[in-house]
Amino acid sequence: MTYRILSLDGGGIRGIISAVILAEVERILNQPLNQYFDLIAGTSTGSILASAIATGRQSQEIIRLYRGKGARIFPYQGRFSPRRLGLVFQYGLSAPLYPDDGLIQVLQEEFGSTRLSDIENSLQLMIIAYDTMGRKPIVFKSWRQDQDFFTIPLWEACVCSSSAPTYFPAHLLQTSTRQYSVIDGGVGANNPAAAALAEALRLNYSIQDISVLSIGTGSSERPFPWNETRGWGLAQWGWKGRLIDVLFDASSDIHDYITRQILSSQDLDNRDFQRYLRLQPDIMNFEIDNASPENIANLTMFARNYIADNQQRLKDFLTSDK
């Protein structure tokens, strides 16, 4: 029997691209996603998608979440907005771009009192974050009762995974044993596919029986020429999220490479079904924090066009092991 993994990248408001793709996955399967996949892994906005699926949301509900509440998470555009003055007074000119109260409120509304430990045993949920105090990744696992984070609220696990440096403050996580200063898992694994694959192998599933559907939020085509970047410092790299853009794209591509190499090893037995599909559209200049209705509409249309071009690939992958 195939052990099915769904991996969901980070990418801020661009998570609506993944949500639209997931709606097509749901349509092809004609069943809830949390009943088809065995392990769902998410980083940053992908952790919100993963948690929504794990708690039984349909894809259209998730799309409405981005459309209806995205502007509360990213409430303005630009570092010089007057609405940012409170952060500047609190932290200085180098303050994060956004407060995290909107993010926290939205996630509390969505997941309420649900805890990581409340996820049904038939499904495994994995969320990636990073602790700046211990300087180690944090991998929240719904099935690990011995883990320090097993009973934390699901909304808080998502806040931890989504607290992107320069965009949001680090999140203070208090467990029964210690404190953690947690930031976006995208700094190490914006694409959690390789981490999810490692977990499946650790759980003693045979690599020949594992399949991975990995969905990204778009890989930027914006070039940074050498004659410009060679002289850039903190200000230039920090402008409009350039550094985060490069770091997250690089992280996603590296983990795609690792997953692809492992699942396409020549010494594996040939099988009649595909083991790995990566859906990652190329995009141009779509910021991860532009939650305007116009941008969300553009992202939605972009995702639908991408699906139209890749529908047969997706259908072949989802039906090849049935």
Could you walk me through the main structural features you see in this protein, from its secondary elements to its overall organization?
This protein is α/β, with parallel strands linked by helices and 322 residues long. Helix 3 runs antiparallel to helix 7 and helix 6 packs antiparallel against helix 7. The radius of gyration is 19 Å and the shape is globular.
Which features characterize this protein?
alpha/beta, 8-stranded mixed β-sheet, about 325 residues
Please estimate the helix content. Answer: 40-55%
Whole-Å distance between the termini? 10 Å
Element-by-element helix/strand order: EHHEHHHHEEHEEHHEEHHHEEH
Provide mean pLDDT, rounded: 89
Question: How many individual helices?
Answer: 13
Number-wise, the strands total 10
Biggest β-sheet description: 8 strands, mixed
The SS-based structural class is alpha/beta
Q: Which residue ranges are poorly predicted, with pLDDT under 50 across at least 5 consecutive positions?
A: none
Round the Cα radius of gyration to an integer and report it: 19 Å
Shape: globular
Beta percentage is 15-25%
Question: What is the topological layout?
Answer:
Elements: E1 3-8, H1 15-29, H2 33-36, E2 39-43, H3 45-54, H4 59-73, H5 85-91, H6 101-111, E3 124-131, E4 136-141, H7 154-162, E5 171-174, E6 179-184, H8 186-189, H9 193-202, E7 210-215, E8 219-220, H10 226-229, H11 234-238, H12 242-263, E9 276-279, E10 282-283, H13 293-319
Parallel strand pairs: 1-2, 1-7, 2-3, 7-9, 8-10
Antiparallel strand pairs: 3-4, 3-6, 5-6
